[in-house]
Amino acid sequence: LTPHRLAGRKVLITAGATREDIDPVRFISNRSSGKMGYAIANAAIAEGADVILISGNSNLPPPANAQLISVYSAQDMYEAVMFNIESADIFIAAAAVADYRPAQVAIQKLKKTAQAELHLPLERTTDILGEVAKLEKRPFTVGFAAETQNVANYAWEKLSRKKLNMIAANQVGKNQGFDMDENALLVLWEGGEQDLGYGLKQDLAVDLLDLVIKRFMLTKHT
Ligand code: PMT
Description:
Number of domains: 1
CATH architecture: 3-Layer(aba) Sandwich
CATH class: Alpha Beta
Helix content: 25-40%
Largest sheet: 8 strands, mixed
Number of helices: 5
Strand order of the largest sheet: 5-4-1-6-9-10-11-12
Radius of gyration: 18 Å
Distance between the termini: 23 Å
Number of strands: 12
CATH topology: Rossmann fold
Structural class: alpha/beta
Order of helices and strands: EEEHEEHEEEHEHEEEH
Oligomer: single chain
Bound molecules: ligand PMT
CATH superfamily: CoaB-like
């Protein structure tokens, strides 16, 4: 029986992949399925939280008892997060958000030309997690780090540079992390770490949330 440690608490979670339009029929995206973020949403619901799940592209059924906000691009996700962040106790960023988007979205479908190469200028998107971490009255803020190499080093660096309360790091690859039922998470916070090992995303989500709740209770966010 889950003890409902988050009863009356508001938890905001991002999940899934953003899409950045190139033209009316093409976009840049990634392999995120939403499974990790949706599993965290379900774990938070089981703990009695009021959950808002802000989801990019995903084919998963919406978790029962969560408020689902479907978004398309990184900019849409940023706006939805900022609109809902006030009074959130915990923010968990599991979405795979595009870091870059086409600098210009073509109004008409791009035509093939005689040129052998096509160069597509990209511009930075807003770092949603970074903006939440900068808020004066911010929630307990948990980021993810998806890396193909040097996972722990990059994650420690991201934890301190973005001033996060916690980071869940996963090694990703073509058949690892993204769009799989299993994952492996290394969770870091200032002064501590726990390797949650390899397992089903549903089980890892429960273990991750347990760590989040324990750290959340110890901080000023009580
Ligand atoms: O969805 P699944 O198929 O289940 O796959 C799960 C996952 C591999 C996508 C998930 O476990 C994961 O690692 N999510 C984060 C993916 C990612 O984009 O990581 P990153 O290292 O590029 O980004 C770092 C953090 O910043 C993430 O918390 C990300 O949500 C956030 N971010 C990134 C860019 C941006 N513009 N805004 C952000 O908030």
